[in-house]
Design goal:
The chain is an alpha+beta fold and 285 residues long. It is built from four helices and twelve strands; from the N terminus they run αββββββααββββββα.
Length: 285
């Protein structure tokens, strides 16, 4: 049985290495032929391309209205935008617009500006790719603590490393709940604000203490509140989840405490007792 497990493990390792090599070769060929990968960081495309999506583009010989393209605007050649084509052609240039924008982009896109046509998008996968540097930092911190702490406290390294990495990542990028103010108009002592929720979770948003409204990810919603004397607008957000998702979220919050309460199993203590000396026993009929 043991030899079968070893054989299965070797086979799994070989398959994994071959698969990794094939992925690397395919990726290099894809990039060599003009393919590109982008992470969406703007909510302008709404649900079509949510913030944090991984976008895969490839060169397109013919671009038609309705397609989503990645391009570098003539006025901002160092920035890549991913918007939908609304009109135009290769000779006159294409007009583009984000799905949530009310007007076209202020430029005409020429063939030389086009990076590629969007062929595939993977929602929220970009958030995972962005987290890799922070996970590496957490792993390095955990390893350092593991080598420094005493044996009975080494489980703390896992908690500290993962907690620091996740907390830092959430603090920097706000992947769960966040919004962008599109317009804010004050009239008659009431402020009406249009928000686009670009977080992963649905959330309740309120402005200046007004009535909260649920806005789904990748959509726009309008909320109202009292106008403040200094003209500022304060937006409050709170995740809106069904009970079973709250249970999962609370469990994720509490699991580090569970690890901290765990204790390593003590080493088994062996006790030895002195046996009495052997005696000869005679058997008689």
């Amino acid at each position: 049985m043991r030899w079968a497990m070893k054989l299965l493990l070797r086979f799994a390792m070989i398959v994994s290495l071959v698969a990794a090599l094939l992925v690397i070769v395919a990726s290099l060929l894809f990039l060599h032929r003009g393919g590109r990968l982008f992470i969406v960081s703007s909510p302008s495309m709404g649900r079509a391309l949510p913030v944090g999506s991984l976008v895969v583009t490839a060169p397109g010989s013919k671009i038609t209205s309705g397609e989503i393209i990645a391009f570098r605007p003539p006025t901002q050649p160092g920035t890549v935008f991913t918007h939908r084509v609304v009109s135009g052609n290769a000779a006159e240039g294409w007009k583009t617009r984000g799905d949530l924008n009310s007007s076209n982009d202020p430029w005409s896109i020429r063939p030389r500006d086009v990076v590629g046509v969007v062929k595939m998008d993977l929602s929220y996968v970009g958030w995972l790719l962005r987290s890799i540097p922070y996970l590496i930092v957490g792993a390095v911190l955990a390893t350092g603590l593991y080598l420094t702490l005493k044996r009975h406290h080494r489980h703390l390294s896992v908690v500290v490393g993962i907690t620091v990495a996740v907390s830092l990542y959430v603090y920097v990028f706000h992947p769960l709940v966040d919004a962008t103010v599109m317009t804010s108009v004050t009239k008659g002592g009431v402020t009406r604000t249009a928000l686009v929720n670009w977080g992963i979770l649905a959330a309740k948003f309120s402005v200046n203490g007004g009535v909260a409204k649920v806005i789904q990810p990748g959509t726009v919603g309008a909320v109202t509140g009292a106008a403040l004397s200094h003209g500022s607008t304060f937006v409050h957000a709170m995740a809106c989840l069904p009970p079973w998702q709250w249970v999962i979220l609370v469990a994720l919050w509490l699991w580090p405490m569970g690890i901290l309460m765990m204790r390593e199993a003590p080493r088994a203590k062996h006790s030895y007792s002195r046996l009495p000396p052997a005696r000869n026993i005679s058997l008689s009929n």
